[in-house]
Amino acid sequence: MKPETFTESIKAALASQLQAVVLYGSSAAGDYIPGRSDYNLLLLADTWSVANLDAIRAPSAKWQQAGNPAPLCFTPERFRASADVFPMEMLDIVESHRVLHGDDPLRGIEVNPAHLRQQVEFELRSKLLKLRQAYLQLRKPQQELPHLLIDSLSSFQTVCRGALRLFSDSVPTDKLAATRALGTALNSPIDAFESIHTLKAQSVQGLATKQDHRALLARYLEQIETLLDRVNAGE
Selecting from 3.30.460.10, 3.40.50.150, 3.40.50.10810, 3.90.76.10, what CATH number does the domain 3-102 have? Predict the structure, then answer.
């Protein structure tokens, strides 16, 4: 299902209560990979009562069955007030988005750099812990590890792009380019990110016996920790 099709369904369900529909993420940033990436949508409406949530339940179910995450649902006022809580996501949406319906809700949004640094540190720490936990939960590491690495990459690259905003005014919309730029800005290695990106662009079927993914995981964990230390130090 295309975002435009889903938008028409939401417009029919909410009528005049729908204020805006915004496409953001990979498809808006230009690094969408068919079969791997999904579409991300932000919905703004006058209210998100149970009645309105129920009104969009059917189209949302079809949207998710097509492989996309459920849309983010905000009122305009709460969306504008969330810049200090979700600064990294807000900046990404501000920079790479496409309005599918209504007025642009990102116009005039500003983010405090202190709030951004706090969230970047939190996200790196929490995602690092979750990655270690996920590895411990693998029953067949040789077969399952490539998928774990691939599934984790996009979220870490998103945080890397947020971290780059702390050190540079030039932030590529492409996640891999932003990760490379962060590595350059901090003089930190990111070759594990490069290797996993290459793995993601290929089919992982049968690759478990062709590459040493445990060694790749070791480099990945080490490089994430190095980035975290540099961000924490504010260097």
Answer: 3.30.460.10
